[in-house]
Amino acid sequence: MKLYSSPVAPSPKKVLVFISEKGIKDIEVKDLDIGKMEHKTDEYKRIAPNSRIPALVLDNDNVILETTAICRYLECLHPDPNMFGENPEEIAQIEMWYSRISFELMMPLMHGFRHTHPHMSALENQNNDFGLAQRELAVKSLQYFDKLILNKEFIACNKFSYADIQAAVSLQFLVRLNRIDINDYQNLSAYINNITSRPSFSA
Ligand SMILES: N[C@@H](CCC(=O)N[C@@H](CS)C(=O)NCC(=O)O)C(=O)O
């Protein structure tokens, strides 16, 4: 299998952490330079018509796009250690926290970055007012999640899961890119430091 990735992008980083947690060895990683628009070439568009990274090319040449779809596929091939839940309640809790992180925290941070940051002007049809409004929403969400995460090691089910990968990687990349200081959110900062100190984050 071959994973199209980029060292500067959060979505493929989630897959790389996932692969490392699972100890998967049979995936070749091919880095694309987003700055040089290597993800916009016709060659890559034949693999990923949406020009987004990551993309996983299977040994039969079929392609899986979307970070979570790739991780769910790999979870089926390598069920241990479990990352998406082992019983109905765990599965629902992990899905719930994954969705809440995605929609309440990651989305506004992502739009705040994509619509206001000069580096994104070549990749996004920017609407600065929308970006600033999303950034404001993100700050409110950070305040909310900062209280919520107090005394919690993991976001879901007292175990490390895909929801923690979604939370920690998104925050690690996107808070800074919105020119927000994570140290203003001490509980979230402690949570991110703890999760990202796992060997899988520096693999
Ligand atoms: N929903 C997709 C989003 C993928 C995505 O937006 N990836 C970014 C890198 S983190 C990308 O390819 N950006 C290139 C662009 O915006 O042109 C997923 O979860 O995989």
Spans of at least 5 consecutive residues with low confidence: none
Number of structurally distinct domains:
2
Just give the CATH class of the largest domain.
Answer: Mainly Alpha
Strand order of the largest sheet: 2-1-3-4
Radius of gyration from CA coordinates: 17 Å
How would you classify the quaternary structure? single chain
Count of helical regions: 7
Percent of residues in β-strands: 5-15%
Mean pLDDT: 97
What structural class do the secondary elements suggest? alpha+beta
Judging from the principal axes of the Cα atoms, what is the shape? globular
Give me the strand/helix succession: EHEHEEHHHHH
Q: What's the layout of helices and strands?
A:
Layout: E1 2-5, H1 10-22, E2 28-31, H2 42-47, E3 55-57, E4 63-65, H3 67-77, H4 88-116, H5 128-148, H6 162-177, H7 186-196
Bound molecules: glutathione.
Glutathione (GSH) binds at residues 9-11, 34, 39, 51-54, 66-67, 123.
